[in-house]
Amino acid sequence: MHSGSWQPGYPYPYAWMGGPGGNMFPPMPPMPHGYGATPQVVPDRVPTNDTPLKPEAKEGAQGARKNIAPSNGGNIGGAGVGQQTARLQSLPKSLTYDGKGSWQAFLTKFGKFASIFEWTEEEKTDYLCLCLTDRASEFYALTTDRNVEMTYAAVVEKLERRFGYRELPETAMVTFSSATQREEESLDEWADRVLTLAGKAFRELPNAFMTQQAILRFCMGAREKEAGEQVINQRPQTIEQAIDKK
């Protein structure tokens, strides 16, 4: 056996005998059949038993990776849309204004609903549009077409100027002072009309003074004059007390 000679039966290079320095590496046994550097194919993806993601979950995950919100505004459950629908359905059918009735009465009722449901300024503008019909709706459309970015306060001011007509205090005072109970009017209807007229005639004065004047007009303008005078002498403090005493 010569130094550095290849030894038959040993397939590896380090089976040379008498390598550098005269050392001899121990012989290696032959590799069993079937072993060796057989290439192994590794799949690109290992299959799993996980349940596939639903489309909406995939959308949310993709949105998180891209730092964007899902297509429904970030609320996968759609609660925002549901809340808006519930608010629309909760509005009474009577909460409408066509440009013919009392604008102030409608605006007062609308303001109460806006306060109860805690509407934002933008929501109040949107819901106000939905409550307007006929002439009022047409005027709203013309007004907002000229200025799309109008605030709620600006829209109300425009509608107030158009439909919130108020008679002059002097005219309202004359109408109030000459009012009398009609033949077909009940006491309750007469009292309501007196309060409405008093509100217009004394709108700049304290409520206590307005109530006092309304009670006097209710009694003095009643069809039964004698009964009205008797009620005045009893000094009722409210219009309801005046009705009960008659």
Mean pLDDT, all residues? 75
The helix count comes to 11
Task: Kindly state the number of beta strands.
Answer: 0
Distance between the termini: 143 Å
Oligomer designation: single chain
Dominant shape: elongated
Low-confidence stretches: 12-25, 56-79
**How many strands, which pairing sense, and closed or not: the largest β-sheet?**
none
Structural class computed from helices and strand pairing: mainly alpha
Amount of beta strand: under 5%
The sequence of SSEs as H and E is HHHHHHHHHHH
State Rg: 45 Å
Helix share of residues? Answer: 40-55%
Pfam families: PNMA
Protein name: Paraneoplastic antigen Ma-like C-terminal domain-containing protein
InterPro entries: PNMA_C
Region (Disordered): 44-83
SSE blueprint:
Blueprint: H1 55-65, H2 79-90, H3 103-116, H4 121-131, H5 134-146, H6 152-163, H7 169-177, H8 187-201, H9 207-220, H10 225-233, H11 239-245
Helix pairs in contact: 5-6, 7-8, 8-9, 9-10
Protein name: Paraneoplastic antigen Ma-like C-terminal domain-containing protein
Region (Disordered): 44-83
Domain Paraneoplastic antigen Ma-like C-terminal: 99-203
